[in-house]
Amino acid sequence: xxxxxxxxQQKTELESELRQLDNELHAHGVxxxxxxxxxxxxxxxxxxxxxxxxxxxxxxxxxxxxxxxxAQIETQLIALHQTTHTEPPTPKRRAFARVSIVTPHxxxxxxxxxxxxxxxxxxxxxxxxxxxxxALSAETINNINTPLCVAIERVVNxxxxxxxxxxxxxxxWGGEGVLxxxxxxx
Length: 186
Fold this sequence. Notes:
Elements lengths: L1 H26 L21 H35 L13 E6 L4 H5 L6 E5 L2 E2 L5 H11 L4 E10 L2 E10 L12 E5 L1
Antiparallel strand pairs: 1-2, 1-6, 2-3, 2-4, 4-5
Helix pairs in contact: 1-2
């Protein structure tokens, strides 16, 4: 269990480093996909291309590190759950919000959210969080271009099921905002 907690701490640190690198890119007036060449194929003179490429390279390396770390966490969690069947069951998590509308081709739609899903966990936000909707808004802003784990309850064949989805919030998907759905309190 301690090993998993250390891995989760490393994950949090890596995600923080990724956000910091994204902020550095924004400070240069670009993002991860901004063109560095002008229309004639020459390097743009209005930006520091070397610094931007260095930051982008660091982003790619950190994303690869995060991907490998997530695989390690998954393996450790599976092993942990296979060996800890004697622990008492955890109380059922309760939903704090409901998805009312999902825009097609939005980040929410691509993650698999559908209208009627009840949100149990949104990144670090849960029903036990104080002021869930303010925390949900802050979690959204702090996780743009970073995968966000969302736990939902969905009724399938008349039975409620809990699903874990990975949501990649982003701008420029063709609609308003970074999420592409409406969330209402329960």
